[in-house]
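hiii, so i know i said id send this last week but things got crazy w the move. better late than never?? heres the sequnce for the chain we talked about at the cafe, plus the structure i predicted for it. fair warning i was half asleep when i ran it
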Amino acid sequence: MSDGGTTRVDVVLVGAGIMSATLGALLRRLEPDWSITVIERLDAAAAESSSPWNNAGTGHSALCELNYTPQRADGSIDITKAVTINEQFQVTRQFWAYAIENGILADRGFLNPVPHVSFVRGADRVAYLRRRRAALAGNPLFARTELIDDPDEFARRLPLMAAKRDFSEPVALNWADDGTDVDFGALSKQLLGYCVRNGATALFGHEVRNLTRRSDGSWTLAISNRRTREKRTLNARFVFLGAGGDTLPLLQKSGIKEAKGFAGFPIGGRFLRSGKPELTAAHRAKVYGVPAAGAPPLGALHLDLRYVNGKSWLVFGPYAGWSPKFLKYGHASDLPRSIKPDNVLSMLGVGVREMTLVNYLISQLRLSHPDRVRVLREFAPGALDSDWELTAAGQRVQVIRRDKRKGGVLEFGTTVVGSEDGSIAGMLGGSPGASTAVPIMLDVLRRCFAQRYQAWQPVLKEMVPSLGAQLSQEPALFDEVWTRGSKVLKLGVS
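okay and structure toks below
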């Protein structure tokens, strides 16, 4: 519908990555008559953070990420965050199974079973891993996780990591066969394809220049074609900003009070990559280590088997990079332009307290290729410089939130910021974002469409049979949805 040169739509999704794609598919299923427009500044879907080369591809379910199972002062292991993240991934997994069964997704190739493994060295850390396994053992979500501390078994399962290793130093693994590798780019494209086939409009190569709230509570978006510079305007009842690093500037332009005080700090990622068949054949897992001193939680090194476009790769990292850009294909002015009177104190507060992180970033930027391969040899002692190339991953904008006592605090994870009336919402942050896209978007639906959410419950329960339940406390229900999902998704686990 058009009104004096302005096209009216029910929903605008800004960004063509996994978040907008997931929300679009949910809304298309719940409200098939609603008009939906997707706006993407690049010429292809999932070309930023959702691209398979711009993220780790881990189906984050806290099976191997040690920062989700911290050790308390008394030596016990806190599994609270691990359970929460695994519960969220189970919701995502159920929706993917539903999407396969109902023709939303036609190709299962975006998802592959890959063991998730925690790796430690040294007697103290081996003892920690034993306590971690014991703490997780009673929870049905983690019951399959094994402890491996025998060198021969280590070598059988991880031959690349065992080659040339000195096993006089104690080593141990927590091994979970339940893990997955996910091509979030391929998944995003399928979900967006479903939306477009069922009436949604996708505008590629278009950028949102401004957005303003109208007196009726709707939003007017000023949009520019990045090639032709042609201008157009859209009027939307609901706007979702799933634009990665660009979400923060757009929230600032919206002027909603809920975005006041938020700032962002960009961190880039770099990985070593190898596609040599003899290497990929010798490492069939995703192996996560302990975060380096001074590294952020998302900086835990890991050596991963990846599947991209049907080919096996090994990827090791991340090594930190830095740029003032908020997107890989963004602008050098992104960071300075994001500094506003309402968030400058937040940024200063973080800057004063996060010198360890700053020093870590500086040290990472100084690394040479031989330096990076030397770090890799902590995982694969026989690694050769010539077998690995450096690749640049996507930009992540870490959330800085206003804090009355500290000025500002740096947050790692994902944050949804929305207006009180539910007419606009945006997602900030990074890992484990993509893996938990479905529960995050369900939360957006609950918060932004409160009057409709109850009526949507029957369809939502078809999509996610465990909706509203805690699977960690209902083993029978977990076994039911897990077994069904494994069969539908052809993951080969039971």
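btw The radius of gyration is 23 Å. thought thatd interest u
miss u guys!!
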